[in-house]
């Protein structure tokens, strides 16, 4: 199935900002991270449609996920 | 730090007092709020002779502990009418601490129309005529002081809006690069203006080191503390690389980035104003993407933003300012936003209140939406010169709303609401509503837990757990604001247990104490209660702990969230 992935901050280095990706059905956030070569502990925040999800979240076809490393401000 | 200076502006006398026992364990916000609560009549006019302006370095300021160089300024605020503490980096805090000065209390007001510069040396404090500085803005004042006294001179100053006692006026503090940090929020520049003090200069020649009771214990704790700052991904990597502006994209993705004066939770041009774009722009142009606001800052969230030719535009370019001008006022060009930031430093207005009031002026039709050039003109030629329009704007978001008959006026206790929408990030809404300071994100930064998943996770879109989260953070922050530490130490402190323990050890080693974590929590509670009692005596009630009504009936996309706390739920905040 097809999903859309948006990457931010350091995750963009040598990767992309936004991309359409082919993934297997029942794929999770953790699977996407693996496909992108990102180690799970590096993940700060993952969002689907503006909602926080954990890395075991199963994805549906067509969703957009936003992935951030551990960053912050104030 | 064993001296308290009392400056009486009514009769131009100074007194050096020893520190009363009940103030000995206090510094920073704990001390400024205690002094203001004890000595300022709560119902006094904030610009009258009975208000006092208090400066106090934090408990650890002047020691080699990382991040400890912040100065607190306190008074009754002319913007909010509440008690106020605003802290800033720069060089002044460490200079005062090394000179043994625990606090400076400025009281009274001159009856004559003369302006003064206070000059602080190891011999005491003198009053110097400052009429030649009147009408000058902050960068010119700093340059003149450097020419007169050399580059090491410490400077606190106000621009023209401060002279004119506008409620958005801040107090500027010279930083190690001869640029500006600010006691931003709450109009403390207007209080300094009401005392007819244009500038304070600090010459610390002859100052010694801050005494440390147990140097070995201190060194050990300082090492663990610094390591925790560097080990935590937010303070060790995220902040130095992207600055606080990394938040633009996170808040945008989470639907909590207030856009076009709080109409929407996402902004179409977010990428143009994001921390990632800013980082790339700075690197490409040869600016500095990491930079500290005082000596001893190892996090370095600040940066030097330069133009295409590499020339300085601004530094300390914060997320809140960029949000306020970029998303909330719809300005798409980061260079224009940076120039506004520089102008706000120069004329001396709070860059949060300034950004929020400019968007409100756009709502009023005074400035076209997104017009960054016109914003620069308005800052420089209207607010900066105190024209009639400039005075309406320079008195803050609430004043603009009243002057133009607006309903969508984002303020709590008349202070502009910063960069996180309270409908879609509900914990921060509780902080805005209940903070003793008026709308203030730093008072209890629930974004850490609501959005960034630091210190656990509380879903930003539901009400569950938000009051408790905000309460715990506000208590901890009141204590941290007393140490002189920059608020970003909270990221490691929330996640790494040794970090918080090391902070307490630093206090114990410096003063020869045996404080525990519970004592620190008690200190935070005590400070909040002192501040809350002051506000109550000043005429505030729980009915003031509310957000503007429009948040309850204007749903914010994309989540179409509204502010849905009942009054009773909000009031539980004070159950401690
Ligand atoms: S981290 Fe940022 S705010 Fe804190 S002391 Fe350093 S430059 Fe200043």
From TrEMBL, chain A:
Q: Which CDD domains match?
A: Ubl_MoaD_like
Pfam families recorded: ThiS
Task: Please identify the protein, giving its name as recorded.
Answer: Molybdopterin biosynthesis sulfur carrier protein
UniProtKB/TrEMBL annotation, chain B:
Task: Tell me what gene encodes this.
Answer: aorA-1
Keyword Cytoplasm assigned:
no
Q: Which InterPro entries match?
A: Ald_Fedxn_OxRdtase_dom2, Ald_Fedxn_OxRdtase_dom3, Ald_Fedxn_OxRdtase_N, Ald_Fedxn_OxRdtase_N_sf, OxRdtase_Ald_Fedxn_C, Tungsten_al_ferr_oxy-like_C, W-dependent_AOR
Supply the Gene3D superfamilies for this chain: Aldehyde Ferredoxin Oxidoreductase Protein, subunit A, domain 2, Aldehyde Ferredoxin Oxidoreductase Protein, subunit A, domain 3, Aldehyde ferredoxin oxidoreductase, N-terminal domain
User: Mind listing the UniProt keywords for this protein, alphabetically?
Assistant: 4Fe-4S, Iron, Iron-sulfur, Metal-binding, Oxidoreductase
- Cofactors per UniProt? [4Fe-4S] cluster; tungstopterin
SUPFAM superfamilies in alphabetical order: Aldehyde ferredoxin oxidoreductase, C-terminal domains, Aldehyde ferredoxin oxidoreductase, N-terminal domain
Q: Is Ligase set as a keyword in this record?
A: no
Q: Which GO terms describe its molecular function?
A: 4 iron, 4 sulfur cluster binding; electron transfer activity; metal ion binding; oxidoreductase activity, acting on the aldehyde or oxo group of donors, iron-sulfur protein as acceptor
Pfam families from the UniProt entry: AFOR_C, AFOR_N
What is this protein's record name?
Answer: Aldehyde:ferredoxin oxidoreductase, tungsten-containing
The record's annotation in SMART domains points to: AFOR_N
Source superkingdom: Bacteria
Q: Which family does it belong to?
A: Belongs to the AOR/FOR family.
Looking at the record, the residues that make up the Aldehyde ferredoxin oxidoreductase N-terminal domain are 1-206
């Amino acid at each position: 199935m097809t999903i859309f992935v948006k990457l931010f901050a350091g995750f963009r280095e040598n990767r992309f900002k936004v991309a359409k990706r082919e993934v297997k059905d029942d794929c999770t956030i953790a699977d996407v991270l693996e496909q992108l070569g990102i180690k799970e502990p590096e993940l700060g925040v993952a969002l689907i449609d503006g909602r926080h999800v954990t890395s075991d979240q199963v994805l549906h076809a067509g969703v957009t996920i936003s992935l951030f490393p551990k960053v912050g401000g104030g | 730090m064993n001296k308290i200076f009392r400056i009486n502006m009514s009769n131009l006398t100074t007194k050096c007092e020893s520190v009363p026992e009940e103030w000995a364990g206090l510094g920073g916000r704990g001390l400024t709020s205690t002094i203001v609560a004890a000595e300022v009549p709560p119902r006094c006019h904030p610009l009258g002779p009975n208000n006092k302006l208090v400066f106090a370095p934090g408990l650890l300021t002047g020691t080699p502990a990382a991040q400890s160089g912040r100065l607190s300024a306190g008074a009754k605020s002319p913007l909010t009418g509440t008690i106020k503490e605003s802290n800033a980096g720069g060089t002044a805090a460490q200079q005062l601490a090394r000179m043994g000065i625990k606090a400076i209390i400025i009281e009274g007001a001159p009856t004559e129309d003369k302006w003064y510069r206070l000059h602080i040396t190891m011999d005491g404090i003198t009053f110097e005529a400052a009429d030649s500085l009147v009408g000058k803005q902050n960068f010119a004042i700093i340059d003149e002081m450097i020419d007169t006294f050399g580059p090491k001179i410490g400077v606190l100053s106000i621009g023209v809006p401060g002279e004119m006692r506008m409620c958005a006026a801040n107090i500027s503090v010279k930083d190690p690069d001869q640029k500006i940090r600010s006691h931003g929020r709450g109009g403390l520049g207007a209080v300094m203006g009401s005392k007819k003090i244009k500038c304070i200069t600090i010459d610390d020649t002859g100052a010694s080191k801050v005494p440390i009771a147990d140097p070995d214990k201190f060194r050990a704790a300082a090492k663990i503390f610094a390591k925790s700052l560097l080990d935590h991904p937010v303070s060790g990597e995220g902040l130095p690389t992207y600055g606080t502006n990394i938040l633009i994209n996170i808040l945008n993705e989470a639907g909590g980035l207030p856009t076009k004066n709080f109409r929407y939770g996402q902004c179409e041009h977010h990428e143009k104003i994001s921390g990632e774009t800013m980082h790339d722009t700075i690197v490409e142009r040869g600016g500095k993407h990491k930079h500290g606001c005082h000596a001893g800052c190892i996090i370095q969230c600040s940066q030097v933003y330069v133009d295409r030719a590499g020339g300085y535009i601004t530094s300390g370019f914060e997320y809140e300012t960029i949000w306020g001008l970029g998303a909330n006022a719809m300005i798409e060009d980061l260079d224009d936003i940076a120039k506004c930031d520089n102008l706000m430093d120069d004329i001396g207005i709070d860059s949060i209140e300034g950004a929020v009031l400019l968007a409100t002026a756009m709502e009023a039709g005074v400035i076209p939406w997104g017009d960054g050039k016109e914003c620069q003109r308005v800052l420089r030629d209207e607010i900066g010169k105190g024209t009639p329009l400039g005075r309406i704007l320079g008195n803050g978001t609430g004043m603009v709303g009243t002057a133009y008959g607006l309903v969508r006026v984002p303020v709590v206790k008349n202070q502009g609401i910063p960069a996180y929408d309270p409908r879609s990030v509900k914990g921060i809404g509780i902080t805005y509503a209940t903070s003793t300071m008026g709308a203030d994100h730093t008072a209890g930064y629930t974004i850490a837990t609501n959005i960034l998943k630091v210190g656990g996770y509380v879903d930003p879109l539901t009400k569950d757990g938000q009051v408790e989260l905000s309460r715990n953070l506000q208590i901890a922050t009141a204590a941290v604001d007393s140490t002189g530490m920059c608020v970003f130490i909270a990221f490691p402190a929330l996640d790494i247990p040794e970090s918080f323990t090391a902070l307490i050890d630093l206090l114990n080693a410096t003063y020869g104490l045996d404080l525990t974590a519970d004592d620190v929590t008690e200190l935070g509670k005590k400070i909040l209660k002192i501040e809350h009692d002051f506000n109550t005596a000043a005429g505030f009630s729980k009915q003031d702990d509310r957000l503007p009504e429009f948040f309850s009936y204007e749903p914010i996309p994309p989540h179409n969230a509204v502010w849905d706390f009942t009054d009773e739920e909000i009031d539980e905040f004070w159950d401690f």
